[in-house]
Amino acid sequence: MGEQRIAVAILHGVGRQSEDFAEPLIRGLRLRLAHKLQITRNAVDQRFVFAPVPWADVLDDEQEDFWRHIRDNRTLGLPALRRFFIDYVGDAIAYERGTSQSRRQHVHRRLASRLNQIARIAGPSAPLCIVAHSLGCVIASNFLRQCQAGDIDATTPLERGETLVSLFTLGSPLAVFGLGAPEGGQTLAVPAPTLRDHHPSLTASPQWLNLFDAEDVLGWPLGWHGEQPSTITDRVVRTGGPLCTLTPLSHADFFYWTSSSVRNAIAENLVHLWAELQGDHQPAQNAGASSLRKAGTKLHIAAADAWAAVAADIEFIKLVVTSLRRGRGIS
Q1: pTM score, two decimals?
Q2: DSSP string, 174-228
Q3: 39 within a domain of the structure (yes/no)
Q4: Residue 1, in any domain of the structure
Q5: Per-residue pLDDT tens for 61-100?
């Protein structure tokens, strides 16, 4: 039997997403983990299972139906901006609207289905880490509360959230969405109360790490909350490429995926989790590498991060242009 792998599920925020939306973050994490654990990037995938969870398409049909009904209304101005608004704000409204709990459950079923796939690869009791951005934080929080309330029909401990070890919320609006009044009145425990039943060695590294850019007006601190301040660690990070950093636009998910401070924070936690899983609570960080090799690797990581930040700016411009063209009826 091989080594126990660690599962990392990644949820995006609002807006249309491709299946590989998390690839920039995964590339950055692979590079760091290979460096810190002194292994190849291919070997990283033998220890960690990275799994994007695209969910927005579950809500697309209703939004497209709404748009078809109103796009030809000549009394409405700025159709391109209205299309942009539907694409992004529409997801939050469709998911949260109280009169249609079925939409929320459809999204939760998508997440459950992906966790089932992850369990088949990483193992039914693999430690579970969740990385979520923006509305994805709300979805992950609601889903995990359902799990801890016993309201999820699943076959493995991972799918039931019993092995939840770490939660990384990026640009989280949970404070605005009502962290103080969770569904059913229950708070979210991170790590899961049942984690020790499956992995008793994981004691020091599990955590809820809330990362947000100071200029991200949708990202809020959570550790101040009176119910469970000791379980959440807030950390300010820097996101955004050269064009969008230090602006509210820094909230975009690809700016978080490409942020060096976000990548470093998640990778650091994963390294410690892996060490604890092997029974080593003081992991050696690239101790055997020469000084020249270490410097070269750090330079490689810095260069990759710099290019990723520029690419994120380009991606943002393409996203805005594409959405505005769709609003104007241009394919």
Answers
A1: 0.84
A2: HHHHTTTS-GGGPPPPSS-TTHHHH-TT--SS-EEEEEEETT-TT----TT-SSS
A3: yes
A4: no
A5: 666 666 666 666 666 666 666 666 666 666 777 777 644 5
